[in-house]
From TrEMBL:
The keyword Magnesium does not apply. Coiled coil: none annotated. One of its GO terms (cellular component) is Golgi membrane. Belongs to the glycosyltransferase 47 family. It comes from the Eukaryota. It is found in: Golgi apparatus membrane. This is Probable glycosyltransferase At5g25310. Keywords: Glycosyltransferase, Golgi apparatus, Membrane, Signal-anchor, Transferase, Transmembrane, Transmembrane helix. Its main location: Golgi. The gene is LOC107434593. The chain crosses the membrane at residues 12-32. One of its GO terms (molecular function) is glycosyltransferase activity. It comes from Ziziphus jujuba (Chinese jujube).
Length: 525
């Protein structure tokens, strides 16, 4: 009996050791990692951790999934690293509107049990506030979603009339046929006012940086630099990490004045200056290299602005270039570049004659008017066919002293706006001020603010080949259409006016809005 009892005991001990060894092997091999069981009072779940992870991170297209993945990565741990622990990780953000936190909270409720009941078994990991760059991108994502929702809305309100919109300067609401999508434009503009921030590099000294012409034909260049640097400042930020775009405030017009050798046609000094400027800011700050300049912009109205931008290949091909010379045959890319209206201010101000156009019913005895120098490929064609040939269609190369340029604009139904050496012409904006319907005679010209404005609702574009039939074409415009075109001019006028200080929806804000659209990469049409 004793021998038998000892043998049975030895066999039992050996069996126990074998079972323990097998269990240890399974544990070490991860066999039991696939299931973690929770038994908490009345709540019993059998939840495979891999299944829980796959539910929360179910799809690459799911915003919550992306947020949890991002939060998991940011917190510096992986669910897989907690495989053998009964641990649930919750990411808690200090921002109550944070999408990461919302996503994790949503995923937590989806699993069907209370985290509070598992508090003693859970590890709660906290992450700090989002970085400035993360907040910028998150805000842009929300703006995109808001704008895209508005694109299907059309007009802002069916009860908003064009006349009311014109008269109510304090709370202007875009509406009417002059806009491609009034609702989307209005939403985009409001998002811009709410969020958009510009960082202006401080590098460089006047007169070639932080300064520009505020008079004559390139005045828009200097006026924009002045407003963004010295205006009310609601769009400028001193915190570069919170900026949406970065402005390089050099003036090509001032470069031409101080660096260019007259009659040499050598633009190399301009390119070198631009190249040096980009090199300085790219070495001093991380922002240029982060995007190869895609969120940087330059602004110039000089004809040679596109050539100067060739000083850096990324500036030319990647950055936002705000140019008066918006010629697609010379590298202007409307998907990333911005067309800048050319505004000529002889003494820094708009002519008093154009500040208050005549009443709507005032007579306009002339069919059309043009006066200008003979340069570029289009004007010689115009002057060859119509110079001093018709008393109804007035075409001059130079006006005599007894004739006044703006008075003739105000007395004409149509104002001819042919391109000169370059595509842009200040006559377009002058015609808008005079409520003289612009007749665009140009090739490869991207008109300003055409993301938002329907130029066909307040101007006429005529192919250069039709210049010999110009009078016939203009005479064929029905009176009702002409009346609608003039109404359109009264609506869009505010978008081309330079104010000091700037006002909502004026040309300064429209330029910023064009840059904003390219930063968020949204088409309103």
């Amino acid at each position: 009996m004793k021998t038998c009892s000892n043998g049975s005991y030895s066999a039992y001990l050996l069996s126990s050791l074998c079972i323990a060894f097998v269990i240890a092997v399974f544990v070490l091999s991860g066999y039991f990692d696939t299931s973690i069981r929770f038994s908490v009072s009345t709540l019993k779940y059998s939840i495979p951790l891999i299944e829980l992870q796959s539910k929360v991170l179910s799809s690459d297209h799911d915003d919550n999934a992306r947020a949890v993945r991002s939060a998991r990565f940011t917190a510096g741990f992986s669910i897989n690293s907690l495989r053998n622990q009964s641990v649930i990780s919750e990411v808690v953000s200090s921002d109550p509107d944070d999408d990461h936190a919302q996503a994790v909270r949503s995923a937590r409720s989806t699993t069907g049990f209370s985290f509070n009941r598992l508090r003693n078994q859970s590890v709660i990991r906290r992450i700090g506030k989002l970085s400035g760059e993360e907040k910028v991108e998150r805000g842009l994502a929300r703006a995109r979603a808001s704008i895209l929702r508005a694109t299907s809305g059309g007009n802002v309100s069916s009860s908003t009339t064009t006349t009311a919109a014109i008269n109510d300067d304090g709370n202007y609401v875009p509406n009417g046929v002059v806009y491609r999508n009034p609702g989307a434009f209005y939403r985009s503009y409001m998002e811009m006012e709410r969020r958009f921030k510009v960082y202006v590099y401080s590098e460089g000294d006047p007169p070639m940086t932080h300064h520009g012409p505020c008079k004559d034909i390139y005045s828009i260049e200097g006026r924009f630099i002045h407003e963004i640097e010295h205006g009310r400042g609601e769009f400028r930020t001193s915190d570069a990490h919170r900026a949406h775009v970065f402005f390089m405030p050099f003036s090509v017009t001032m470069m031409v004045k101080y660096l260019y050798q007259p009659l040499s046609y050598n633009l190399t000094p301009l390119k070198h200056f631009v190249s040096d400027y980009v090199r300085v800011v790219s070495m001093k700050y991380p922002f240029w290299n982060r995007t190869h300049g895609a969120d940087h912009f330059m602004l110039t109205c000089h004809d040679w602005g596109p050539h100067a931008s060739q000083g850096n290949p990324f500036l030319y091909n990647t950055s936002i270039r705000v140019l008066c010379n918006a010629n697609t045959s010379e590298g202007f890319n409307p998907q990333k570049d911005v067309s800048l209206p050319e505004i000529k201010l002889y003494d820094g101000k708009v002519s008093p004659k154009l500040l208050s156009p005549p009443p709507e019913n005032a007579p306009r005895p002339y069919l059309a008017f043009f006066a200008g120098g003979l340069h570029g490929p289009i004007r010689p064609v115009l002057l060859r066919h119509w110079k001093n040939r018709d008393s109804d269609l007035l075409v001059y190369e130079y006006l005599t002293k007894d004739l006044d340029y703006y008075s003739l604009m105000l007395q004409s139904k149509f104002c001819l706006c042919p391109s000169g050496h370059e595509v842009a012409s200040p006559r377009i904006v002058e015609a808008i001020y005079a409520e003289c319907v612009p007749v665009i005679l140009s090739k490869n010209y991207v008109l300003p603010f055409s993301d938002v404005l329907r130029w066909e609702a307040f101007s006429i574009q005529i192919d250069v080949s039709e210049i010999p039939k110009l009078k016939e074409v203009l005479k064929a415009v029905p009176e009702e259409k002409y009346r609608r075109l003039k109404e359109g001019l009264r609506v869009v006028r505010r978008h081309f006016v330079l104010n000091d200080p700037a006002k909502r929806f004026d040309v300064f804000h429209m330029i910023l809005h064009s840059i904003w659209l390219r930063r968020i990469n949204v088409r309103l049409a």
